[in-house]
Each structure stands twice: as structure tokens, then as C-alpha cells.
Amino acid sequence: MSINSLVCIKQVPDTTQVRIDPETGSLVRKGIPSVANPYDLYALETALSVRDQHGGFITALSMGPPQAEEVLRKALGYGVDRAVLLSDRAFAGADTLATTYALAAAVKKIASGRDAQTGASGIDIIFSGKQSIDGDTGQVGPGMARRLNFSQLTYVCSLIEIDVEARCVEAWRQREDGRELLQAKMPVAVTVTEQCSSIRYAALPDLITAAKKPVEVWSAADLDVDRERLGLRGSPTRVSKIFAPPARKRGETLTAPERSVAEVAALLFDRLAERGLKIGRRGG
Amino acid sequence: MTGWLSVALRSAGAVAELKKDKASGREPQAKKAAAEGEGEIWVVIEHEGADAAPVSWELVGEARALADELGVRAAAVIIGAGEQELARKAFSYGAAASYLAAGPKLGAYSADPHCQALAGLAARHKPQVILLGATTRGRDLASAAATELETGLTADCTELKIDPEKKLLLQTRPAFSGNVMATIITPKRQPQMATVRPGVFPAPEPVAGASGEIIASKPRLKPTNVSVKQLEFIRAPKDEVSLQGAKVIVAGGRGLKAARNFALLEELACELGGAVAASRAAVDAGWISSQRQVGQTGQTVRPVLYFAMGISGAVQHLAGMQASDIVVAVNNDPEAPIFEVADYGIVGDLFEVTPVLTEEVRRRKAEAGADGGLRIEKSARK
Ligand SMILES: Cc1cc2nc3c(=O)[nH]c(=O)nc-3n(C[C@H](O)[C@H](O)[C@H](O)COP(=O)(O)OP(=O)(O)OC[C@H]3O[C@@H](n4cnc5c(N)ncnc54)[C@H](O)[C@@H]3O)c2cc1C
Ligand SMILES: Nc1ncnc2c1ncn2[C@@H]1O[C@H](COP(=O)(O)O)[C@@H](O)[C@H]1O
Predict the structure, then answer these.
(1) Which of A167, B64, B102, B165 is the most exposed place for a label (fewest CB within 10 A)?
(2) Do domains B2-23+240-368 and B41-225 have the same CATH topology?
(3) Residues A153 and A173 sit within 8 Å (Cβ to Cβ)
(4) Nearest residue CA, atom 19 of ligand 1?
(5) Domain ranges of chain B
(6) Do B226 and A149 touch (CB under 8 A)?
(7) What is the pLDDT at residue A247?
(8) Which pLDDT tens digit goes with each residue over A95-138?
(9) Helix axis angle, B2-21 to B136-149, nearest 10°
(10) Considering only residues 210 to 249 of chain B, which have any Cβ-Cβ distance to chain A shorter than 8 Å?
């Protein structure tokens, strides 16, 4: 018995370069390189190590514009068995609710094995990142779990055991106050944190076969979906305004040739006191 | 598919239940009359037994302000084993009502039963807004419940306002690693849902003896084949203050040179009641746990005071800390980019400067007497 898994990979802009144009107040995304969402690579590595141990098939799934094929090519290079890209104008502008609707429909189709060239049927585990660095919501993983009636395990920092017979997964989940060991029934949707293992080096044979493998591109017509629930139309949220955060400015340099370190330290805490951070009663 | 259907079914079920509730007395006043609680602002209280996460009370305070503006009630939702004391505590922080949903499967948190309970309550009472803390649990539950209710959910808000004309909730949050702020609305569906970072809103002063209405219920959960069980829990050491809740963070980078030198930062953090964090370079060097990493691939933090010690200030690091109120940088390179975002820059050797800072804090505390500590007055927040 083996484990079939699906990894959700999103292509994201390098968010550190995204800016608001101060003139127009609109988002500047032109020329900004796209990358695979870093957390999704931890998800991919986790799926690969599950396959190393238990066998089975891995499908990588992404929804995005045609160039999102790049992240799926990358996944194929790491040896995933199949790559599916949902790309269609109908999917555009989706918030997390409309995204999980489309992704879940694709998972159902993949799991039904209707057009699987791999012969795989059923999905036991869905892996996704704890969040995407552009959307930063962490809502897509659990949203899919809900739609597909999968158990939900978020913020997993290490997946330790899969009991194939009992169809159970054991994983450590990171919380603010510690870690908990959870046992979940499969099928399960797991979202992983950066504490899972980093992605391995792609093996040359995999890279060679990957070059020959297709990335399947599906449109809305390929899915059993209600178009009203896709993309912008299917999204309950709207962006009403975007703006630049209050800019941080270079502040005051406290060090000066005539000041000793002790004087600098005293000056710092005087300044902090002026801004309402008081240690004891001194300084106001 | 399943979402819409189950909500529809559940609200039908709710009406039936309502009729049954009233069976003993007069005519059911269901249907035409608004659902009890319609239009309220709800806060889901995150709790472990009778211990609530502080963010829950921060949100009750904010919900009260929003509710007052709209002329509706603010209410707390407590899903658990029937924690009456939490219901009363919610009143003291400004809630006018507490929904106490209790049942054997609800005692300990698990996404599926808690999601069913929350979605069921919302379908029945029709709040216009549901707020949760943007914690690992709050996000887990909110995502599931918003999907179940087929409604919008805005993550990690740092500001909430009411649109004076449309009466919609204006949900402002950072996006693209904090380089962009976006205001999100959910114009056509209810409830409007949002998670909010801990520490964004001040905790209200509790009012002793405040009272309110307790609405107790026993949600009927539909059987499912999903299941998540807790086998073990390892609490993080008590003295390890969580980065999310920390008011003061002292972070160290490659400039620290060795794991043992983090002790210098710990001393300063300890005197200030803060937490120690790190850049990725320090984490990658194995000097400190990856749980302490701040930045694009670590945590996003928003303390009142952030110390960057021996951190150059790479954009990926700034992504995680630029929303801090006050940034202090100590670096021996006057050209380090961290100084571009620091309110106070100290050009110098951190090994020399840090102990002096710690000493200065101790001296001021001693001078102020035994009760002297770091007091944060509201004016520090921008
Ligand atoms: C996709 C991606 C994601 C990333 N995510 C993150 C992230 O989440 N968080 C993160 O932090 N980084 C992240 N990085 C890495 C980031 O680009 C930087 O490499 C990293 O932040 C550098 O850490 P540092 O400032 O500690 O080290 P350095 O850049 O080496 O800086 C060390 C600083 O210490 C100073 N110094 C040295 N000795 C002393 C002394 N005795 N006294 C005072 N100052 C001294 C030096 O002048 C220097 O400025 C990411 C990178 C990539 C590509
Ligand atoms: N368009 C998408 N295509 C594929 N996977 C996605 C997409 N959006 C989100 N995900 C997955 O869901 C995770 C959480 O994303 P988010 O909810 O946007 O923070 C990501 O780490 C991905 O694994």
C-alpha cells in the first residue's frame, strides 16, 4: 500500500521587491521576478520524503497565469509524477474562497483518476505551505480540507509517522505556546512550516525525465465547477484601497565622538522615555 | 457545493430547533422576526479551559467600539465545555452577550467540531462580523469556518474601521511582506470575517460587575470521517516569551558570532521583559532555533520596541520587523542598511554596547525602586 499525495505550489512575486508607485498609488509588479512560494518547497520536500518511504504518486498542483508553469517544471525536476496547472481567465482575481473552490475541484478530478496517466487513484494527503508570501493568509490549506472533507493539520513542523494500515498520520504542530503531537485520519490536508526539512538537490535523472514530462494545463471547462464561484466573481472579498505603509525614515544616530558608550545608553533610554517607554520614574 | 448546501440545511435545522425551544410557550416568533443576535459583532474567544488568549480580550474591546458605532451588540463566542467564567469575563471587557456552545466533542480544540459549532451558531444568529485572533489556532478555525459559511475572510488585520456610509467593515492589513497596505471589504456576504494580530489593539480595562446575556447551546454536530486527536503537548519553557505577544524584542544576527553570545541579548531582553529573536543568518548558523527567526521566511513581528543587534538589515529581514513601533540598531558598520529604518542608531561593537544597555536599564530600575519596570504608555504606538 502506498500513499498518494498532492502538493499545492503557488508562484509568487519576490515580495520584497513589490512596491506602491508613489505617483499613481498603484502596485508596481512589472519586472519583478517570480519564485515558488518558499513554504511550498518545504511542502514538496515533505511529500518527496513520504514517497521515499511509502511509495505512491505525487501530483503538483498550481493555479495561476500561464507562466506559473515554471514552478511546476521545477517540481517535476524534483521528481513529482504529475503536474497540473489551472490556468484560465475565469480563475483570475480569486480570493482564498474562490481559490479553494477551484483547487478542490481539481483535487477531486485528480483523485477520481479519470484522466490520470499515472494510474493513481485517490489522494491521501494534500501538502501545502503554511502561507503564501504574497497573500500571507494561510487560508487555502484549511479551506481545501473543509471543502474536500479532509482532516486538517496546520502549521506542521515535522511529520513523523504514517500508519498506512490504520490510515493515520502523526505530526508535530507548532503553536505559540509549544508543540503538540497530533494524530489525524487520512485523507488529510497538511500545511507545513519552515521547520520541516529544506528541499533536497534535484537529481540529474529526474531533471532529464522532467524535461520530457508535460505540465497539463486545465481550464475551467476541464473541471466540474459553477463558473459563478470562480475567480473575481466567486470572491466575496474586494480590495477597496491599497496604499504604501507609513515609511520608516532614518532616525537619529546616537553615537558621537564626544559621547561615551554609557552616555549613548543613557541618551537612548531618555529618548525612549520621551516616546512613552519609561523605565522606572526617571526621564519623566 | 457542500458549503452552500450544508449552510442552507443547517439554517433550516436552526429554525426547527427554535420552534422546539419555544414549544412550551407561545407561538414561535421565528421566521419574520430577525434572528436573535442578528447584526452583532462577534469575537471567538480562544481558550484552554478557563484561560483565554489575551488577543481575545483585545478583540472584545475593539468589537465593542465597532458595535457601538453601528448601534448593535458586541458578543463573545465561547466554544468549549461551558466555561461560564469566560462568559462573565467577556462582559467585563465590553461584551453585551456571550454565546456558550458546549458539548463533549468541544472541550478540547479541534478544527472540525469547532468549525461546525461556530458555523452553526453564525447561520442561526446571523452576526455581521466575526473576529478571531490571528494565532495558529485562530487562523485554523477561521479558515475552516469561512469556507463552511462561504464568506470572505481577511487575515492578519492591523486596523479595523466602519465605512460611515456603507456600514461595511474596513479591514486593513499588510501585504507583500509589509511593502503594501491593503484595505479589504466583504461587500455582499455575511458574516464579514477577519483575523487580527495579537497586540494590535490594547486590552481594555476590565469593568468589575459588568453583566450581560448568556446564550447557552448544545450544537448538534454531524458525524464526519475526519478526525484529529492530540497525543501529546510540550509546552515551550515559561521564560521563553512568544515573539507574537512580545512588546520588546531583542534580535541578533551574524554579528553575534557564536551561539553563546545570545546570552548577552537574553540579559537585556530579560531586564526589559522581552523576547530574543534572530536573523536568518544566525538561525542558519545554528546559534538559535528557527522558531526565533524574524523575516520573510520567519515570523512577522510588531513589538513596540525592536533591537537589531549585529543585523545588516537585508530586505528579507526588514519584511518581518518593519512594522515595529520603534527600532534601535546596533551595528559596527555605519553603512549597514538597518540604519535606514532605525529610529535610533548606535554605531559600535555590540559586545561593548549591549552590556552597557543592560546596565543602564538595571540602574534606572533600581533608581525607581522595586516596582520600577518598563512601562509602555500608549503614546509609544503610532
Ligand atoms: C528567499 C529568502 C528568504 C529569506 N528570509 C529571511 C528571513 O526570514 N529573515 C532573515 O533575517 N533573513 C532572511 N533571508 C536572508 C537575508 O537575505 C540575509 O542574508 C540575512 O538577513 C542576513 O542576516 P544578518 O543581518 O544577521 O547577517 P549579515 O548580513 O552578515 O549582517 C551581519 C551584520 O552584523 C554586523 N556586525 C558584525 N560584527 C559586529 C559587532 N561586533 N558589533 C556590531 N555589529 C556587528 C555587520 O556589520 C553586519 O551588518 C532570506 C533570504 C532569501 C533569499
Ligand atoms: N494559486 C495557488 N495555487 C496553488 N497553491 C496555492 C495557491 N494559492 C495558495 N496555495 C497553497 O496554499 C498555501 C497557503 O496560501 P495562502 O492561503 O494564500 O497563504 C500556499 O503555501 C500554497 O501551498
Answers:
(1) B165
(2) yes
(3) yes
(4) B281
(5) 2-23+240-368, 41-225
(6) yes
(7) 79
(8) 999 999 999 999 999 998 744 454 556 999 999 999 999 888 99
(9) 90
(10) 224-236, 242, 244-245
Q: Chain A partners of B345 at a C-beta cutoff of 8 Å?
A: 250-255
Look at residue A119 in the predicted model and tell me its pLDDT.
53
pLDDT of B370 over the 60 cut = no
Q: Which residues of B touch A19 (CB under 8 A)?
A: 179-180
Kindly state if the Cβ of B35 falls inside 6 Å of ligand 1. no
Q: Which of A190, A140, A151 is nearest to B110 (CA)?
A: A151
The reply to whether residue B367 touches residue A281, judged by beta carbons under 8 angstroms, is: yes
* Stretches in chain A below the pLDDT threshold 70: 114-121, 280-284
Question: What's the mean pLDDT in B102-111?
Answer: 95
Distance CA A173, CA A161 (A): 13
Separation between Cα atoms, residue B301 and residue B174, nearest integer Å = 12
In order of B205, B365, B371, the CA distances from B374 in angstroms are 19, 8, 10
B111-125 and A140-148 helices cross at what angle (nearest 10)?
A: 80
- Ligand number nearest CA of B296 is 1
Q: How far is it, in rounded angstroms, from Cα B287 to Cα A15?
A: 27
Question: Cell numbers at residue B181, please?
Answer: 497596505
Q: What is the pLDDT of residues B197-249, one digit of tens each?
A: 887 888 899 999 999 999 999 999 998 888 999 999 998 876 666 787 788 99
Q: What is the ipTM of this complex?
A: 0.88
In single-letter form, the type of residue at position A173 comes to R
What is the rounded distance in angstroms from the CA atom of residue B51 to the CA atom of residue B45? 10
Confidence at residue B382, expressed as pLDDT on a 0 to 100 scale: 47
Instruction: Report yes or no: B305 at the A interface, CB cutoff 8 Å.
Output: yes
The response to whether residue B290 sits with its C-beta less than 6 Å from ligand 1 reads no
Q: Is B188 on the interface with A (CB under 8 A)?
A: yes
Grid cell, residue B137, equals 489556532
Distance (Å, whole) CA B347 – CA A256: 9
What pTM was computed for the model? 0.85
Q: For chain B, what is the mean pLDDT? A: 87
**Distance from A247 to chain B by nearest Cα, in Å?**
9
B2-29 mean pLDDT: 33
Residue linked to cell 452552500? B4
The answer for residues whose C-beta is within 8 angstroms of residue B9's C-beta and 6 or more apart is none
B273 vs B254, more confident: B254
Q: Is A34 in the pocket of ligand 2 (CB under 6 A)?
A: no
pLDDT of residue A177: 84
Instruction: Report which bound ligand comes closest to the CA of B147.
Output: 2
C-beta separation of B323 from B197 below 8 A = no
3-state secondary structure of B332: coil
- E strand or H helix at B130: strand B129-133
**Number of CB atoms found within 10 A of residue A26's CB:** 9
Q: Measured between CB atoms, does B170 come within 8 Å of chain A?
A: yes
- Kindly state which CATH superfamily the domain B41-225 is placed in: HUPs (3.40.50.620)
Domain range B2-23+240-368, CATH architecture: 3-Layer(aba) Sandwich (3.40)
What do you get for the CA distance between the two ends of chain A, in Å? 71
Query: Is the shortest distance between the CB of B317 and ligand 1 below 6 Å?
Result: yes
